[in-house]
Structures are given as structure tokens and as C-alpha cells.
Amino acid sequence: MYIFDMMDIGNLLINLSGVVASFDIKSLGVATGVVSLIGLLIGLFLGLASKKLEVPVDETEEKVRELLPGANCGGCGYAGCDACAKAIAIGEAAADVCPVASSDIHKQIAEVIGSSVETSDKMVAYVNCAGTCDKAKTNSNYFGPRDCKLAAGIGGNGSKACSYGCMGFGSCVRVCAFDAIHIIDGIAVVDKEKCTGCTMCAAECPIKIIEMIPAKARTEVACSSFDKGKDVKTVCTIGCIGCRLCVKACEYDAIHVNDNLAKIDYEKCVNCGACVKVCPTKVIMEQPI
Q1: Whole-angstrom Cα Rg for the chain
Q2: Phi, psi dihedrals of residue 123, rounded to the nearest 5°
Q3: Domains located in the chain, CATH noted
Q4: Distance from C-alpha of 186 to C-alpha of 148, rounded to nearest angstrom
């Protein structure tokens, strides 16, 4: 009796396992079909939604973006080249708003948006300071952060006695995306060949001694001090003393002294070098062509 019962139970289990297996296979097939159907419906829904919600692509904006250099330096006043391209395409910005792009690129952009640009001189950065380590005097030992903005916030001008001089901590160097400015002998110096005129270094300088000048300019006043001549001499051996000899020597009315500081009008300057020759402190410098 016991043996018979065990055989019956065994057969019953075999039959049940077959039913379960059959049920599992059918359930799996149904589940797979349901999931596939749901996936298909979701795909169709997303496809329809993308068409419905699709943002129209401005072909003009795309063409302008392709022409821009992709530096994303912000020199144009916009948050990167994408924003700049959009601004140009909608007429918010001029075709030559990008300072990094060449004049040829400006012309191509103008053609894309159906406008024109006037040929203008390339602008480059120039640091109005010649107070190198051997010329600028110090009035303290500076142990603070090697950052111009932070040093300016602390007060003073680092260790330099001249409150208008380059601190030489290199904040401008760090923001330049083109390796065009370096600290040499205690002051920032711009490589005109590499400078694209993006203005990032000028914007970063906390004492505003970096200005944009025409790349073709050969004559520069390497000083930013508005102090009187006597006070300038006490802190720097090469600073502008406001003597006005340069003004008298210039035949083109291209240099004037205001607030004790000589300033060149580059629209009038012909790079004759007359002011360079008469400057007693040699702060007016003539760069090679």
C-alpha cells in the first residue's frame, strides 16, 4: 500500500510539473508580448511628442556658429560662442562682435546674415606698466595670496610702492585662453602675435591697467600713474612724470597729458617716434614692427 501511494504521488508531481511548465511558458510569452506592445506604444508616443515639441533650428544661427572660432572666451559679451551665434543670427549683435575671429571670418558671417562689416584694425591688449623688479620700488613684504584681485581686496598693491603698477601675480595670465600674456620680471607682458583681443585679461585686472590698442601701434606709454612727477619718482624710476615734452614734440597732436599722465590718441598717431626720443624717463616705448 505504501509503495502504491508513493507511485501515485510521483505521477501526480510529474503531471503537475508539466502543467506548471506549460503555464510558465505561456505566461512568459504573454508578458513578453505585453512589454513589447507597451514599448512600441511608448516609442510612438515619444516620436509624436518630439515632433510636436521640436524646437525649430535656425539655419542662419548654425552657419554662424560654424564660422565662429569656438574659443568660448566671452570676449564678445555673451556666454560662449553658441550665445554669440544666436545673438548675431537674430540681429542683436553685429557680424564682427567676436574679437577672436579674423576680419575674413567677420566678412563671411556678414554674408550669412546679409549685412556688411567695415574693415577695422585688430585690437590687442597692452599692459600700461613698465615697473619691472629693477625699476619699481617696494614698500613691504607681501605674504598674501598670489592673486591680483584678492591682493587688491586686502588693500595696497602687493609689495609694490606704486599703487598704479602691475602686481605681477598673474590673474590675467590665468584667464587668457590663448597663452598670450605672461609675467616677466614682475609685470604682465602681452605677446601681440598670440593676442586675439578677447579683452578677458583687461576685464580681470582689478586696477584696470590693461587696455586695448591697435595691433599696428608701435608707440605706447607704459605707465598708469596719475601722481605728480615728484611722487612718481619716489616709487618708480621709469614712470611718467607729466613733463609734457612729448606733447611739444608731436606734430600730429596725437599725445596729451591729462592728470599727470601722457596718453596716446591712436587715431592720430603715425608712429613717428618723436615722443619716444624726448621722453626723459623712457616710459614712452617704441615697439619693433
Answers
A1: 36
A2: -105, 140
A3: 59-113 (1.10.15.40), 123-214 (3.30.70.20), 217-289 (3.30.70.20)
A4: 13
Torsion angle, alpha carbons of 288, 275, 132, 192, to 10: -30
In single-letter form, the type of residue at position 12 comes to L
Helix, strand or coil for residue 252? Answer: coil
* Between 253 and 119, residue with greater pLDDT: 253
Q: How far apart are CA 224 and CA 172, in angstroms?
A: 17
Segment 242-264 shows an average pLDDT of: 97
Three-state DSSP at 168 gives: coil
Q: How far is it, in rounded angstroms, from Cα 287 to Cα 126?
A: 12
Running DSSP on this structure, what letter comes out for residue 140? S
C-alpha cell belonging to residue 282: 623712457
* Number of helical (H) and strand (E) elements in the chain, helices listed first: 10, 8
Instruction: Report pLDDT digits (tens) over 46-78.
Output: 777 766 666 566 788 888 888 988 888 888 888
- At a CB cut-off of 8 Å and minimum separation 6, what does 115 contact? 94, 95
Write out pLDDT tens, residues 125-147: 999 999 999 999 998 888 888 89
For the chain, what is the mean pLDDT? 85
* Integer Cα distance of 17 and 13 in angstroms: 6
Average pLDDT over residues 83-103: 86
